[in-house]
Specification:
Layout lengths: L1 H19 L5 H7 L17 H7 L4 H10 L6 E2 L3 E2 L6 E12 L2 H13 L11 H4 L5 E6 L12 H11 L3 E4 L1 E2 L2 H5 L6 E3 L1 E2 L7 E6 L3 E3 L2 E3 L4 E5 L2 E5 L4 H23 L5 H4 L5 H12 L10 H10 L3
Parallel strand pairs: 3-4, 4-5, 5-7, 6-8
Antiparallel strand pairs: 1-13, 2-7, 3-9, 3-12, 10-11, 12-13
Helix pairs in contact: 4-9
Length: 310
């Protein structure tokens, strides 16, 4: 009986200690993303390949949204952003951070724990996520929409972010020194507003924990697709299938538009479930499609057609 009590107390102590950490442990992240079976980063986040991230840049938000809705993920899109470079597209592996309104006693606990985790306690804790960014990461922060006295970065931190990630940020909150951020070549950001104030009434509370961005739920290791039409957060284990499915839909659209211009079919025939005649025409059209212009490899396309019911 004593052994059972001791084991229970040890387990309780373990989870209590875990809950006090600022950053999620690799074990916790692996639990959150247990459906991912591929390579992982040192912190436990899924490492979706760079090649797949590049292909994702060509996917439309609507196509990604539709795929996720069909899989039961109904709360993964957020819009109404201000964007540093609105004509650019950004994809990457998500590193999450949560901020809350400043509360001095809680801030002291966070700073003390940050010290135990070997984090820099001399500067502001808003530098902590930046220090652990890896190439291909996107820094995603829940700043609860605050702008005044809640600006999460200016040009100094923006340069540090880009130096580590070669990517950008998505902030449900504010930024400062937009002029300086515009000068960082390759850097981009989605944010709620800008203000000259610096961060003084807001504090970091967690890194790589689940967060809320607007009407979305975001997990560390998600993959984000961000463009002028919004941001969509994709579970890592669905990215591969989402990309090829969306690429296939784009080919269907291209075929349909071409046949409508040629007046071979009526709009009603293309805009509904296709007949066997149209399906056969599409498959023949695909066979003649130049390999070097396909969004996927010919083998990937052939494999997809074997299981695709359209």
């Amino acid at each position: 009986m004593k052994k059972i009590i001791l084991a229970t107390l040890s387990l309780f102590t373990f989870y209590t200690i875990q809950a006090q950490e600022v950053a999620a442990t690799p074990e916790y992240i692996k639990m959150l993303t247990s459906k991912w079976t591929g390579e992982r980063l040192d912190d436990g986040r899924p490492k979706v390949s760079d090649a797949l991230l590049q292909r994702l840049k060509k996917i439309r938000i609507e196509e990604a949204w539709g795929y996720l809705r069909n899989k039961g993920f109904n709360n993964q899109h957020e819009g109404n952003w201000q964007i540093i470079h609105p004509n650019d597209v950004m994809t990457g592996r998500v590193l999450t951070t949560q901020y809350m309104p400043l509360r001095p006693d809680y801030q002291q606990v966070i700073k003390k724990q940050g010290g135990l985790e070997k984090r820099d306690t001399i500067g502001g804790s808003n530098s902590w996520p930046i220090e652990i960014l890896k190439p291909g990461d996107v820094y995603v922060a829940d700043g609860y929409g605050r702008i005044v006295d809640g600006t999460l970065i200016g040009s100094n931190l923006g340069n540090a972010i880009y130096a580590n990630s070669k990517n950008g940020v998505i902030f449900d909150g504010g930024i400062r020194d937009l002029g300086g951020l515009l000068d960082i070549e390759g850097f981009n950001g989605w944010y709620r507003g800008e203000d000259p104030s610096y961060l003084q009434q807001e504090m970091l509370t967690s890194i790589n924990m689940p967060i809320r961005i607007g009407r979305t739920t975001v997990l560390p290791g998600d993959v984000v697709l961000a463009n002028r039409h919004g941001t969509i957060f994709i579970p890592a284990h669905l990215v591969d299938e989402l990309v090829i499915s969306s690429e296939f839909v784009a080919l269907q659209d291209e075929f349909g538009f071409q046949r409508l211009r040629e007046k071979k079919y009526l709009a009603g025939q293309i805009d509904t479930r296709w007949t066997n005649e149209i399906k056969d025409d599409f498959k023949d059209w695909l066979q003649k499609y130049p390999d070097n212009k396909l969004p996927m490899t010919r083998q990937e396309l052939n494999d997809y057609l074997k299981v695709k019911d359209f």
